[in-house]
């Protein structure tokens, strides 16, 4: 286990650079952060949003199977075990995230901004039902020249609490799983791409007003811990040698 921790430390540091840098420069989300390139980050964040996250998960499952299952393996059994590891990792992360969100009840950055702009409070916003929250956002931004329509719709779909970031957790979990389960030298292109994708997910969650740096830090650490546990079972079940 010590060796696999060493293998993941560098990637853990990479994922923590973004939120730690934001904390150091004392940056806080405001609408003037948005520009013509912001929509590109929206499309990045959509790869980890429902329902597109299902397609992303299937894509990674196929890739993991292709890279882990060899001709000499009992293919069906190993494919099922790979599926079990990946599904357990993603679902456990989302359950942990949901529990923490419900207990901490931290407001999203955009919620703090929009409620302040309309002379109300984030406590009032979260006292509403989910459909009422979406309607509140829609009505508040219907004539807005600051918030583009695509971002307004994104906010209407994500009216829950902020801490931690489910999108970042989803991406970081897959990235750490790639590192602990796959041979980096043999699959460095795929692993590098999934690390870059995770960093872009982190940036997108900040730029779109969805999360704070602390949200990202906890998500990355949870994803890291889940991947280490999954590696233990992957060794036990002979998914990796």
Write a structural description:
The protein has helices at 2-24, 38-46, 52-68, 75-104, 109-117, 122-127, 130-140, 149-157, 166-181, 188-207, 213-236. By secondary structure, it is mostly helical. It folds into two domains: 1-22 and 48-67 and 79-106 and 161-241, no CATH class; 107-159, no CATH class. Helix 1 (2-24) runs antiparallel to helix 9 (166-181) and helix 3 (52-68) packs antiparallel against helix 4 (75-104).
User: Would you count the extended β strands for me?
Assistant: 0
Find the structural class using helix and strand composition. Answer: mainly alpha
Number of domains: 2
N-end to C-end Cα span: 13 Å
Radius of gyration: 19 Å
Kindly state the mean pLDDT as a whole number? Answer: 94
Poorly predicted runs are none
Per DSSP, the total helix count is: 11
Largest β sheet strand count, sense and barrel closure: none
H and E string: HHHHHHHHHHH
Question: What general form does the structure show?
Answer: elongated
Helix content: over 70%
Beta-strand percentage range: under 5%
Question: Which key terms come to mind for this protein?
Answer:
11 helices; 72% helix; mainly alpha; 241 residues; 2 domains
Give a short summary of the structure.
The chain has 241 residues and is mainly α. It has 2 domains: 1-22 and 48-67 and 79-106 and 161-241, no CATH class; 107-159, no CATH class. Helix content is 72%, strand content 0%.
């Amino acid at each position: 286990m010590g060796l696999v921790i060493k293998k993941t430390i560098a990637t853990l540091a990479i994922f923590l650079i973004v939120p730690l840098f934001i904390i150091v420069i004392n940056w806080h989300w405001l609408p003037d952060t948005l520009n013509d390139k912001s929509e590109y980050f929206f499309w990045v964040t959509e790869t980890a949003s429902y329902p597109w996250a299902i397609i992303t998960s299937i894509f990674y499952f196929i890739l993991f199977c292709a890279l882990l299952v060899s001709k000499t393996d009992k293919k069906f059994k190993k494919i099922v075990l790979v599926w079990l590891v990946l599904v357990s990792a993603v679902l456990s992360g989302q359950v942990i995230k949901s529990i923490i969100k419900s207990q901490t009840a931290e407001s999203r950055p955009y919620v703090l901004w929009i409620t302040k702009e309309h002379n109300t409070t984030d406590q009032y916003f979260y006292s509403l039902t989910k459909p009422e929250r979406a309607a509140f956002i829609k009505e508040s931004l219907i004539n807005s020249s600051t918030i583009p329509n695509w971002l307004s719709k994104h906010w209407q779909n994500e009216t829950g609490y902020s801490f931690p970031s489910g999108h970042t957790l989803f991406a970081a979990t897959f990235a750490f799983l790639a590192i602990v389960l796959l041979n980096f030298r043999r699959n460095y292109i795929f692993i590098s791409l999934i690390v870059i994708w995770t960093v872009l997910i982190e940036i997108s969650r900040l730029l779109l007003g969805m999360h704070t740096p602390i949200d990202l830090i906890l998500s990355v650490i949870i994803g890291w811990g889940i991947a280490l546990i999954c590696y233990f079972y992957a060794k036990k079940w002979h998914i990796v040698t």
